[in-house]
Design brief:
AB_hydrolase_fold, 13 helices, alpha/beta, globular, Rossmann fold, AB hydrolase-1 domain-containing protein, 10 strands, two-stranded antiparallel ribbon, 8-stranded mixed beta sheet
Length: 367
């Protein structure tokens, strides 16, 4: 079983690697490291594999902490997540960022991934794109917010390889927001705002409700909804009135071997972490380091914020929050990272599963 470990500790994460796409290409290629969300393992990305090599991509599918093949959370870590001590939670989330940073740098070195380089016409070649989907963005923001405090060798390795980061369909809690109107109909399953994660009558049966809820196709939306407080009523109405379409949910086409039904404990512990901390991670991730700092993390990699036309309201609002944070920082004169906001038309929360070739083409174009 392939694993990537933290170099100075016992933590390891399971991964699958497609290997270099060497046939018919040069030795320079792009590697995409993919991190899954809740319930499904990294196997959710396997439909992308047949389309990767012809686009000169190498894929590395990574399992989160607590998922099959990866290190479980220690009792001390679980206690920190469940604690009401904000500083204890802050220390825990910072340490998780260090763990993911060191694992990714170890992967880069172990797999001998080509470093990022610039061609004569100023185009980037090689390097790594790190993509997190759905609740996996919690881990992504923990990593990005801790980049400048990683051990030196890990920092240098990531700096020399990271070309882009894809924030793909982030949920509200990973963005550190929960607008008050989402709680108006926590128990109304006919509402487009309903979520089994927020419904206390359903949480104990989350495995039953989770798949159809997050993998259905919902009424399309053209633009991201506003999270300005003055627009709350309009956004509430827009989200509430979204309906599930007749298109079969993606989960009906997925196999059981990529499901992890013990995810409820991990999810419930993550939800105990206060939104303030998630928001801190997002804001720090969006902010570029000052010019006079020794390590210029902002020098090359960009952010891609990706959402889908028919996705669930949970992800629309999470994406909106991150886009709004970025605009607010920029308008306040804060030096922010370059961020591109993109939409995949016709897709639900599972664009990578339902249209894998189209998703790979998006990665090639935007990452």
């Amino acid at each position: 079983m392939p694993i990537a470990s933290v170099t100075d500790g016992p933590i390891h994460l399971y991964y699958e690697d497609t290997g270099p796409p060497t046939e018919g290409f040069t030795d320079v290629y792009t590697t995409v490291i993919l991190l899954h969300g809740a319930y499904w393992t990294s196997g959710i990305f396997r439909p992308l594999i047949p389309h990767a090599k012809k686009h000169n991509l190498r894929l590395v599918l990574l399992n989160q902490r607590g998922y099959p093949g990866s290190s479980p959370f220690a009792d001390k870590e679980i206690a920190a997540m469940q604690s009401e001590d904000l500083e204890l939670q802050r220390a825990f989330t910072r340490e998780q960022g260090h763990i993911y940073g060191q694992v990714i740098s170890t992967l880069i070195e172990t797999l001998d991934i080509p470093s990022l380089c610039t061609t004569q016409d100023e185009k980037l070649e090689g390097g790594v794109c790190f993509l997190a989907w759905s609740s996996g963005n919690e881990c992504l923001f923990q990593l990005l917010s801790a980049l400048d405090t990683l051990p030196e060798q890990s920092r240098i390795t990531i700096e020399n390889h990271l070309r882009s980061v894809v924030i793909y369909e982030p949920p509200m809690y990973a963005s550190g927001t929960c607008p008050p109107f989402v709680l108006r109909e926590a128990d109304n399953r006919s509402s487009g705002l309903w979520s089994p994660v927020r419904d206390p009558n359903c949480f104990h049966q989350l495995t039953e409700y989770f798949s159809p809820w997050c993998s259905s196709y919902y009424s399309p939306i053209e633009n991201l909804p506003s999270l300005d407080p003055k627009d709350y009523d309009a956004t509430y109405t827009l989200m509430h009135e979204r309906k599930i379409l007749n298109t079969a949910p993606t989960y009906t086409r997925l196999t059981e071997d990529i499901c992890f039904k013990d995810f409820i404990t991990i999810t419930s512990n993550a939800l105990r972490i206060v939104p303030e901390l998630f928001r801190e991670h997002v804001l720090r991730s969006l902010t570029r380091l000052e010019e006079d700092q020794a390590w210029q993390l902002h020098s090359r990699f960009k952010l891609v914020l990706l959402w889908c036309e028919h996705t669930l309201s949970e992800s629309l609002l999470g994406t909106s929050a991150i886009s709004q944070y970025h605009e607010e920082l920029k308008s306040n004169g804060v030096l922010v990272r370059e961020m591109e906001v993109g939409q995949i038309g016709g897709a639900n929360h599972f664009a990578h599963s339902d249209d894998p070739e189209g998703f790979v083409q998006f990665l090639v174009k935007h990452c």
